[in-house]
Amino acid sequence: MSPGLFIQLIVNALTIGSIYILMVLGLDIILRGTKILNFAHGQLYMLGAYVLLLFFQTLNLNFALALILSGATLAVVGALSYLGVFAVLSRRFTVSTTFSYRLLLSAMASVGLMMILQQGTLLCFGTQERGILSPFPQIIDVFGVRISLTRVVIIFLSILICIGLFLLMYKTRFGKIMRAVSYDPEAVTLQGINTFWIFVSCFALGSALAGLAGGIIAPLFSVTPAMGQNIIFMSFLVLLVGGIGSYRGTIAGGLLVGLLLSFGFQFMGGIAELFVFILVIVILVFKPGGLLGEANE
Amino acid sequence: MKPTSSSTVSRNSRLKLGAIIVTLAVLIILPLCIDSDYIKHLLIMTCIGAILGMTFSMLYSSGLITLGAAAFYAVGAYTSTMLVTSLGLSFWAALPVTIVISAVLSLGFGAIFVRNAGVAFVIITLIFVQVIVIAAGQIEFLGGWGGIMNIPRPGSLGPVEFVSKRECYYLILMILLLIIIIYNALYSSRIGRAWRAIKLSPNLAGTLGINAYRYRLLAFVIGSTTAALAGSFYAHYFQNITPGAFAGWLSIYVQLYAVLGGLEFYILGPAIGSLIMTFVPEYLRVVKEIEPIITGLLLLVIILFFPGGILGTIKNPPDFSLQRFKSELSKIKIWKMQGGKR
Amino acid sequence: MSLLEIHNITKIFGGLIALRDVSFDVNRSEIVGLIGPNGAGKSTLFNIISGFHHPDKGKILYKDVRITGLEIDRIARMGIGRIFQEPTLFMQETVFENVLNGFHRHYREAAWKALLHTPGANREEKNKRDKALEILEFMGLSALRDELAANLPHGWQRVLAIAIALASEPDLLLLDEPVTGMNPSETTSMIEKIRQIRERGVTVLIVEHDMRAVMSLCDRIVVLNLGVKLVEGTPDKIKNDERVIEAYLGKQVL
Prior knowledge:
The complex is a heterotrimer of chains A (about 300), B (about 350) and C (about 250). Chain A is about 75% helix and about 5% strand. Chain A is mainly α and about 300 residues long. Chain A has a domain at about 20-225. The longest helix of chain A has about 30 residues, at about 5-35. The mean pLDDT of chain A is about 85. Chain B has one domain (about 35-315): ABC transporter involved in vitamin B12 uptake, BtuC (Orthogonal Bundle), CATH 1.10.3470. Chain B is about 70% helix and about 0% strand. In chain B, helix 3 packs across helix 9 (about 210-240). With about 250 residues, chain C is an alpha/beta fold. Chain C has a domain at about 1-80 and about 210-255: Rossmann fold (3-Layer(aba) Sandwich), CATH 3.40.50.300. Chain C has 10 helices and 10 strands. In chain C, the strands form 2 sheets. In chain C, strands 6-7-8-3-9-10 form a 6-stranded mixed sheet, with helices on both faces. In chain C, helix 3 runs parallel beside helix 6 (about 155-165). The longest helix of chain C has 21 residues, at about 120-140. The model of chain C has no long low-confidence stretch (mean pLDDT about 90). Chains A and B meet through helix 3, helix 4, helix 7, helix 8 and helix 9 of A and helix 5, helix 10, helix 12 and helix 14 of B.
């Protein structure tokens, strides 16, 4: 394998990996904060792409601005979906409700949401693939290796978003509260903080991340209604690989899966996905709960 | 709960017995009265759906939620097909072999999967069913994505030949009834009590000497083997299997059967859910395009307002007074500590 | 040989030292109290004994067998029962069903026999049910037998938790704050019940904040503070110990 190909595959791996990292960070924030496994997460990613299309292509806004706006829009969508669906659901939960009941009902509610969002988008926009011309179409030359600038920008933007996220979660009071809620909601309530709005924020933030992932990837891949379904599956996998409840695990998992998929598709074709699944099972044998996650209920 | 007098208890059990006999009679006579092959097919698929739903409920009864009910359904279908088409066994000879192979496989995989709790288990089962589907698609020996066709119907059992849908219906009905009897015995035994204890509080159950892992593994193996049994029937009834038949929505629909019928009714719930979800869409002639939206909305309405499912709502009918509406609204409000400890 | 021997238990959570080098014994038929200000590590110690956590250092011997590192259910089957600080019950089952679950580890007939409802299995089932009723009677819960656990008032929920633990017929019973949240008359009844439990041959290790209960019940008391054992001794000795009084910051608790 030539060094040029190797570099390109690495860049590809990082690109794929960063998208999954953003997606799964979003999933994880929602999951840890509200204990809801949001099956509609993939649809939020898809909507992010369509909204970006709207702002960038139709309204001709600057790409960065369009991206920020699509993130914000999805944050609102996420908040609304919590308010409209999950908050209404949670009124039935008391202290004595079992974990499995909570999980099942909220997961099924999110499936319902997923179906509506999916089909709704399909009906609104049709099945045709849309693409946008990348605002960064150049091919750059790094030590003789040709790399598309678009991918580099994607990686760069993802890193930027991750840094922003970590600053938010670890350096601001808001972030600390959000993290505390996933450990001990009661303690947070006792401090006089309203956990209800924290849950809304978790959903808003997680959805924004999914939307940003969708927006970022739009210049690279075509935008179709099937985007959501295609990505959710692998996202769950990355979540499992990295372990639920660990940001570091998510990043490690995303990068690992990115590498596997990138190199895998090059040399194995379609079976690459199968390989990732087998990897997950192997990891689970040795470490129930994922690489860096917790195994207990 | 007021203690019921013994006369009410025996009246209740007599009512139950009567209902069971009537239902059985209807189920048995049904295909004789119906000419349409299509409806007989739907009835058969209802039975299969009910069985799959019951495997979901069995896992749920011990606190595990599976999104991979279709996994061993596929394993059973493919295993039986291979045994019959490649090794030349008869359906009846292949049946016990399929069951044993599925039991062993589910024990092996289950031992790994069940160690993971809650959310991780959901994702694992989701992935597992995908792995099975992709593996079946990629392996040419298993027919690849095109699947396997011309699978023979079960050979004759004594005078009975399984040529028409009617005989197949009776076969699956027998299987369904057998499963109901076994499952019912399990649920009313101390195994069922242990499952329930684990579901309600794994910690407390642990302090009473109940090993959650082992009991859940048991549920997993029993459920998976049952699904495999249904799968082997399906392969020889439908005479054609493709990886696509087991993918995607099937596992989610299986959950839906249980939820629709009533989550806490491990046997009757999935049966009713399967019946409704199999027949109603056929009669509603909904435009193909908005069908998922309607299903999605239906799902949301059930989860949000009737989480007890049909049977649960009948048992505890909600009252539609304004007072209750107001109290429900206030529960959503800001002060309530939501999420809570598990 | 003591029933329970705790040797040099150390447990660290993240950077926090929950327990440091804690050692003491519990002898058969004793009622030993474990007290200390909040955060002293008492519940952590209970969790380690019953198997919910594994210690970082040290070991615990029960009937001369090492139990640290064993699974929760294995430890339970060796004869250690416990109640939890938070209400931990089978909420959606009745009081009777809750207690019946306690007998789980004592079934002798094989499970498949239970499925087939053989006469032996049926007899054993009836036997367990009778025993459950007897425990309900003993704890004063008979009138509530068909009530859902979730509907019980707090005090009765504590009583039920103890009943369930008793049903598993433990030799050692770990009571985590049995009377916390009870009114004085409930507390008095519970104190008497715990004495009766000891008379039935059960050894009791009890964590409590209610000093009246602790002083009147316990043969010996172990005092923890900030994860370290301060002192152990008879109630009188503890009452007058300066370190203990200081640990409680001069509060009027003794």
